[in-house]
């Protein structure tokens, strides 16, 4: 399974001590130039550099055509009142998701809303960190107490999840 | 489905408002302070970073110090 990651997702996973599980869930995760451009701090850069060196991550330079489509997506998100804004980096991820069938990894609700609202993007799978943790438990890549693991992720990344989302991870860990 | 997202957005805003260290936020230089307040309201790290004149992951670190969670 392949994925393409947005900046906020990368920042969170760079802080998580069990980040290796991301590369067990996915064979490879693409990092578009627009995402890499936003990464400045040493721990995040180190996470990306190590991932690139090991081949878990792959740098991707979008073509002008892909950028044009991404820019159209940004403008559509800004000009449609029922949508939430998406910016170029996550729009590039959505375009990659649509064109190549990759899972889009982002925490941006705007990207999720857009993928659910626009016909041409409806087939794009958008996952948040909680979805990756749930999949890891479902495939037994993570074992132990799922609630404790989600708490660890929250503690290390300062990311909070709704109780029903945590409950879903617990449920998946039981049925796997 | 979109209604769920709107609810998630509202829930996240409430969590950020409740958890944020407002004394820390108010003690920051004006540009950073306003960027953090924007982040609490909108949860948009990218635009908040632009407001602060910082990188996205640099602002994420300050947000962590300000106890502003990423949510949902």
Report what the structure shows.
The complex is a heterodimer of chains A (176) and B (72). With 176 residues, chain A is an alpha/beta fold. Chain A is 59% helix and 10% strand. Chain A folds into 2 domains: 2-127, Rossmann fold (3-Layer(aba) Sandwich); 130-175, no CATH class. Chain A is built from 10 helices and 5 strands. The longest helix of chain A is centred in the middle third of the chain and has 16 residues, at 64-79. Chain A is globular and about 45 Å long. The relative contact order of chain A is 0.16. In chain B, helix 4 (45-52) packs across helix 5 (56-65). The two termini of chain B are 15 Å apart.
Distinctive features:
heterodimer, A: 176 residues, 2 domains, five-stranded parallel beta sheet, B: mainly alpha, 5 helices
Secondary structure elements and pairings:
The complex is a heterodimer of chains A (176) and B (72).
Chain A: E1 2-5, H1 7-15, H2 22-25, E2 28-32, H3 33-36, H4 42-54, E3 57-60, H5 64-79, H6 88-100, E4 103-105, H7 109-117, E5 126-127, H8 129-138, H9 146-157, H10 163-175
Parallel strand pairs in A: 1-2, 1-4, 2-3, 4-5
Helix pairs in contact in A: 1-4, 5-6, 8-10
Chain B: H1 2-19, H2 22-26, H3 30-42, H4 45-52, H5 56-65
Biggest sheet statistics of chain A: 5 strands, parallel
Average pLDDT of chain B, rounded to a whole number, is: 92
| Oligomer type | heterodimer
CATH topology of the largest domain in chain A: Rossmann fold
In whole angstroms, the N-to-C terminal distance of chain B is 15 Å
Number of strands of chain A: 5
For the residues shown, what is the average pLDDT of chain A?
A: 94
Judged by helices, strands and strand pairing, the structural class of chain A is: alpha/beta
Q: Compute the CA-based radius of gyration of chain B.
A: 12 Å
- CATH architectural type of the largest domain in chain A: 3-Layer(aba) Sandwich
Q: Segments of chain A where pLDDT lies below 50 for 5+ residues?
A: none
Query: Biggest protein-protein interface?
Result: A-B, 30 and 28 residues
Give the SSE order of chain B as H and E letters.
HHHHH
Helix tally of chain A?
Answer: 10
H/E topology pattern of chain A? EHHEHHEHHEHEHHH
Which word captures the global form of chain A? Answer: globular
Give the DSSP E fraction of chain A (strand runs of 2 or more residues): 5-15%
């Amino acid at each position: 399974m392949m994925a393409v990651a947005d900046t906020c997702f990368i920042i969170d996973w760079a802080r998580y001590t069990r980040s290796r599980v991301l590369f067990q869930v996915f064979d490879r995760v693409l990092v578009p130039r627009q995402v890499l451009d936003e990464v400045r701090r040493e721990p995040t850069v180190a996470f990306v550099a190590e991932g690139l060196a090991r081949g878990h991550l792959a740098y991707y330079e979008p073509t002008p055509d892909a950028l044009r489509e991404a820019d159209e997506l940004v403008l559509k998100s800004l000009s449609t009142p029922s949508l939430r804004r998406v910016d170029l980096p996550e729009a590039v991820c959505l375009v990659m998701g649509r064109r190549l069938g990759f899972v889009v990894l982002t925490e941006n609700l705007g990207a999720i809303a857009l993928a659910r609202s626009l016909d041409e993007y409806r087939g794009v799978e958008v996952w948040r960190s909680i979805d990756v943790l749930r999949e890891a438990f479902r495939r037994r890549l993570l074992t132990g107490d799922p609630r404790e693991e989600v708490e660890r992720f929250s503690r290390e990344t300062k990311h909070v999840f709704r109780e029903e989302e945590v409950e879903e991870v617990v449920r998946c860990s039981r049925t796997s | 489905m979109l209604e769920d997202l709107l609810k998630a957005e509202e829930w996240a805003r409430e969590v950020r408002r409740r958890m944020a260290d407002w004394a820390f936020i108010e003690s920051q230089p004006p540009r950073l302070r306003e960027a953090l307040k924007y982040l609490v309201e909108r949860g948009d790290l990218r635009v908040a970073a632009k407001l602060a004149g910082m990188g996205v992951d640099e602002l994420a670190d300050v947000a962590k110090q300000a106890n502003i969670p990423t949510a949902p």
